[in-house]
Structures are given as structure tokens and as C-alpha cells.
Amino acid sequence: MNESEGSKTTWRQRLFGGFRRTSERLSDNLSGLIRGGRPDAKTLDAIEEALIVSDLGPSMAARIREKLAGQDLPDGDPESAARAAISAEIAAALAPVAKPLEITAFPRPHVILVVGVNGSGKTTTIAKLAHHLVDQDYAVMLAAGDTFRAAAIEQLAIWAGRIGVPIVSGPEGGDAAGLVYDAVKRATAEGIDALIVDTAGRLHNRRELMDELSKIRRVLGRLNPEAPHDVVLVLDATTGQNALSQIATFKELAGITGLVMTKLDGTARGGVLVAAAEQFGLPVHAIGVGEKIDDLRPFDPAVIGDAIAGRML
Questions:
Q1: What is the mean pLDDT of residues 246-256?
Q2: DSSP conformational letter for 2
Q3: Which helix (H) or strand (E) holds 176?
């Protein structure tokens, strides 16, 4: 993103602030385990367990264990050396999945279905994503496809007004697939680059949700065989390991192609971002730290590694 160095610093500081509870949790779990010299097997076992309970996941914990097993930690400051190793392994795990959402479809519009359970921050994430794309000079339209909740329709309409983008919406309880059809036709006619579609998040009724998403996909396919071009799952980081089960569920129900993780500023469980990358390998398009309209950003794996490991600015 085209930012001044000053605003980059502000974002980095907010990011580190957001991950502070995560890094403090990791520090508490590692407390007393890291000493100078090469760690023995018992110490490595304890470190690996501490990493797992910090939500980094067993695969990441094993990678860090292997890294530390071959490292002589300095007597003067072994903890800093260990944090550097943890940060480097986290960055290496995140690098392959750090992929910003790109508008590539031709013919336009590029259709992005956004899915996620109610309360995940889905609607506000759509607004933030739209704002980001508008800043990149794309013409954006929203579609209020979560017709099950009047509040979701109203909230998205308010955001559309603030951002200055058009929205296609209908009555509560309306046919979501029909609304999406109308939105694509209108977006095509108006030369819209990106159409972002909100969808229902009723996981308590998986069959109904799957049927609705399948119907939306069929409608889109009739208009453009390539659509939807992206199916993005919004995850609430405060749910911790439950976020992993949500990924598995929505992968089955919706064929998700990428992730956005929100609410990283209010949780000690930001390590689940790493576990998700390791377990599923899906692109992580952006992370959210805060409620402001510009608080959704593509992320730098090295900075995320430093933030989780608690390496200072």
C-alpha cells in the first residue's frame, strides 16, 4: 500500500499492540524454560508444549523445536536469541500464504463471496475491503446477500454510504441468489471492477447454508463460468482453535479460496493465524487490528513473526 513512512510506523505499532496479548501469553508459557547453551531434550519438550498451548499448532511447534535443537543460545541473553528463532520460523511458515486479494477477472466484475459465522466481523470486513479497493482506484459495488438478518442489510448499507459505493439490497428474507444475480447484471452494466457479496452465516443449519451457497454459485456460474473468483472466509481470532474447525467447515460448504482474520487486537490467541497457515495452506489476504476503516491490511510475515514472538520495535 502506498503509505508514508510515518503511517507505516503507526500501523506497525498498532499491530504490535494488537498482538501484545498473544506475545505475552507466549512469554508466560515459555517463562523459565530458556537458558544459555544448547537446549536438552527435556527442555525442548517443554518449549514445544508451551508453543502448542500458545495456539501456534503442533506443526509449527515442532519446526521451532527443531530449529532450537541445533542452536547454542548465548548465556547473556538466551531469550532474545530464542525469540529471533521463533520469529524466523513463523515468518517462513506465513510467507507462502501472504497473498493480498487481487482484482484480475476479465470480463469484469471480479466477484468476491464473503462467508463467515455471524459475529465474526464479516460485514465490517467487507466495508474495510471495499475501502481498500476504492483506494486502489477500483470501482466497487456491494451486495447485501445476508438476507436472513435485517441488521446485516442495514449495516452494509450504512457502510456503503460512508465509503461512497453502490449497494444492491433487498428485503429481509428475500432470495439471496436472485439478489446476487441482479447485482452481477447491474455491476456489469455499470462497469464495476469488484463486486463484494455478503452471505449468511448460519452454521447451526449447515444444510440450509450449503443449499443457499450452492444456489448462489449456480447463478453466478450461469452469468460467468469463472465466478465467484474468490470465496473469502472471515475468521474471528478470539475464537482460537475453533477458527480451525470453521476453516474446515467452510472449506467443505463453500469452497473457500482465502482467509481474512479479524479482531487480532482483542485476543491472546493470535497464534492461530500460524496454525491456520500450517494446516490449510490457504492464502491469508489480510488481517484486522482495530475497528477503523483502514484497520484491515495485507500483512508482512516478518513483522507478524516479530509481533507474535514479542520482539521489540
A1: 91
A2: -
A3: helix 176-190
